[in-house]
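REVIEWER CHECKLIST
Item 1: Sequence provided? yes
Item 2: Single chain? yes
Item 3: Sequence as submitted:
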Amino acid sequence: MRQYYRNVEVKKLFHVADNTVGSWIERARQGRNDLEIVEHEGRFFIAENERNRLLMKALVDQGKKYINSRSRKDAHPKSHLYEVYSQDQIFDIFDSIETVGELPLQYSYFDGGAKYWDKYANELAGQGIPNMLLSTIELLEKKKDFITELAKQHKRVNVIDLGVGNALPVKKLLNHLLELGVLGRYIAIDTSKSMIDIAEHNIKEWFGGRVNFEGHVRNFEYDRFGDLLKTEFFDDSNSVNLVLLFGGTLTNLHQPEDALHTIRKSMGKNDVLLYALKLDTESARRFFDVPFDTQFRMPLDLLGIEGPWYEIEKVYDAASKMRSISIRLNVTLSIQVKFGDRTRTLNIDRGDSVLIWRYWHQSARDVMNQFYDNGFDLLETSLTSDHKYVLVAASIQKSR
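Item 4: Structure as written out by the authors:
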């Protein structure tokens, strides 16, 4: 019999946010409050007993007692917020912060964040030491024979680049397909129009008119892209689609399996998915080479969340094998945004945290199991010489 509160139950009983419940649990694990915690399947919950009920009521009362004019702040979103993000995207940001205590990472790649990422990726390209970008390019070179053989079996190879970024990882691959005379369409998919514009500029600069660039703003976590390939479906030209997912993108998502389901349902029976990521190592768990001050601060600034109102926390959680960066509020914050002719207010309590970046650490076996469990068969895998990065080639399971 279950002897703990589900987080949603605590939220409803005490009228607190999800991230408040998470904060209570984390503080209890650190010995910073007296709540009794139980572990179930690698996750921690508040034990269901009368003592904990009284303690939680006291925590709520204490929070209300100390909220005063000095600790309560009203954030004033910048007008540029409504130019950078659509109404649906603003709703998604609000809903995610309110329900799961997370500002989705993709919204840091808009506007100035996209320009910063382009600059950062170019710096990675010139480092000359192993990193995600250079290792992906190296692994694609190792896969050249595999790609050449795939091309021989079809008259045309279309490339679908999910989370395109600035397109640097795919530059040599596109050139190889051009040399083979089989490159069809190059379809770039990203939630950020700014990122797509940068990729299109780079592709035109590198290849002129030799690459047929198509950019589409979609969130491949839940937006299928199979409809973009209808021409190929009704055409007998014997084309195949090469779907790319680089940068370890799945490891940044709240629910990676949702994206894998969407990708699988968008692919054809002969299509191939190439996925690259950095594998779990002891050093990777401790190392946070993530540029907060520029890229991640951009959406916070647009929302009117000022730097002095929060502290940055960088954590590796061994139970979930997740590295994360969050902001923890040292004020109680109210953010009010417009939705057409209406307004909505988001309240974040002092002491609550908002996750802004994560990385799920995976071994090679974890990756294999994840793909198989979500309807894929692995065709090939390649490792860099230091065994820190992997490239997986997969197709959909024919039985599904």
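Item 5: Key structural point noted by reviewer: Residues 167 and 199 are 5 Å apart (CA to CA).
Item 6: Recommendation: ____
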